[in-house]
Amino acid sequence: MDCSTMATAAPADVSLDSGDLIFASMGPIIQGLEDQIRATRGAQMQMSIKIKEMSDFLHELNEQEEPYDIQSYVGKLQDSKRRVNNVNQIMISVHDRLSRLQRLIAREIYKKKKSIKETELPPSPEH
Questions:
Q1: Virtual torsion, Cα 60, 65, 68, 71, nearest 10 deg
Q2: What are phi and psi of 69, to 5 degrees?
Q3: 0.70 exceeded by the pTM?
Q4: Is 71 within the bounds of a domain?
Q5: What family is reported (predicted)?
Q6: How far is CA 58 from CA 65, 67, 69, in A?
Q7: What is the spatial distance between Cα 44 and Cα 127, in angstroms, rounded to a whole number?
């Protein structure tokens, strides 16, 4: 009877270990992606601020009496700002998806661990 208990416990340990292995292998990857997303978003925010400053400066130059033709540059800067904002929105979306994926993986592992613990046979009383 001890052999059958060990036989049923061994596959449970294997599936528990494989679930842990999956989570352990995905965790650093997801964390690395999240770190890269945060760094990219920070750089994009700084770039957006610099673009805004440059745009304001060019608007001031445009309002001066000097005959500078900078309207095309202002348009290009505004287009760049729009693109940076679009990429920022995409990065936010990807970050949200990664966070949801990480939560789903954690929930799935928790459910598997819970079901494995529930299916384990209690030790048989010895007579």
A1: 50
A2: -105, 85
A3: no
A4: yes
A5: Belongs to the SNAPIN family.
A6: 13, 13, 10
A7: 71
Contact predicate 108/26, CB 8 Å: no
What is the spatial distance between Cα 42 and Cα 31, in angstroms, rounded to a whole number?
A: 16
Assigned token pair, 84: 């940076």
The amino acid at 119: T
Q: Is residue 2 part of a domain?
A: no
Report H helices in the chain.
2-63, 71-119
Query: The domain containing residue 35 runs over which residues?
Result: 9-119
**pLDDT tens-digit readout, 70-82:** 788 888 989 998 9
Structural domains counted in the chain: 1
Whether residue 126 is contained in a domain is answered as no
Tokens of 16: 């528990």
Return all residues near 26 (Cβ < 8 A) that are at least 6 apart.
102, 105
Would 103 be classed as within a structural domain?
yes
